[in-house]
Amino acid sequence: MTTANEVVLAARDVEKRFRDEVALRGVSLRLRAGRIHALVGLNGAGKTTFMRTMLGMIRPDAGDVSIRVGGEDVAVERISPVGWRAVGHLVEAPFSYPELTVSETIIAAARLHSLPRTAAAAAAQEMIDRLALGHWADRRTHTLSLGNRQRLGLACALAHDPQLLILDEPANGLDPAGVLLIRTLLREAAAAGAAILISSHHLDEMARIADTITVMHAGRIVGMLPPNGADIERQFFDMVYAADEAEAIR
DSSP per residue over the chain, as a string? Predict the structure, then answer.
């Protein structure tokens, strides 16, 4: 178990290039237990690439990422399947099996994180109740709307009670009720000690729930925004425009 405010994930000077395009430029970031860290930026800023790198889905060209496992910092590429059991994520497409029902899919996700069958079934039912998926519990996932597929993806990411949670635009396709459900779930997960990284275009929502807000632009970290700050949208664009101006005169 991690202790409050302990660094659970650390990325140091991460760089990534796709042919002629530089996607990440020396990005460093630390996630702490019990805190919600928001990563905000325009489309193409590099948020998803960075999240995929932190999850070991992409190997960086330079820099390193480590996750706290069993009291030790372990490089992402060396984490065993046992270590990954404590990680939950929703990056790009939500986890689902089209031929399975909603309930079966959540159970499968929990089982993949080593929950015993009975515990996985109980966790699935809890997630169905908490994310208001009961009406669709016995429907095959390919029949779901975008918003309900997103709720299902969140259920799969949360069912095994992860200590590290990485979510890329989790409110995508959700109505206001769904956004409120996510807000409650994330606050409760953080209160229970999880380290959470969440990317979003919804600046006002991030200002409500995040303990830390980091701004990414053109593949680099360009500054921080104050949680609960006034007129956070204006501050965000001022920061982005200033970064563009600084890059133009280099």
Answer: -PPTT-EEEEEEEEEEEETTEEEEEEEEEEEETT-EEEEE--TTSSHHHHHHHHTTSS--SEEEEEEEETTEEEEGGG--HHHHTTEEEE-SSPP--TTSBHHHHHHHHHHHTT--HHHHHHHHHHHHHHTT-GGGTTSBGGGS-HHHHHHHHHHHHHTT--SEEEEESTTTT--HHHHHHHHHHHHHHHHTT-EEEEEES-HHHHHHH-SEEEEEETTEEEEEE-TT-TTHHHHHHHHHHHHHHHHHT-
Confidence tier at 70 by pLDDT (50, 70, 90): confident
Q: pLDDT tens-digit profile of 123-151? A: 999 999 999 999 999 999 999 999 999 99
Q: Is the pLDDT of residue 1 over 60?
A: no
**Domains in the chain, CATH or no CATH each:** 7-86+162-248 (3.40.50.300), 96-161 (no CATH)
pLDDT of 60 higher than 70: yes
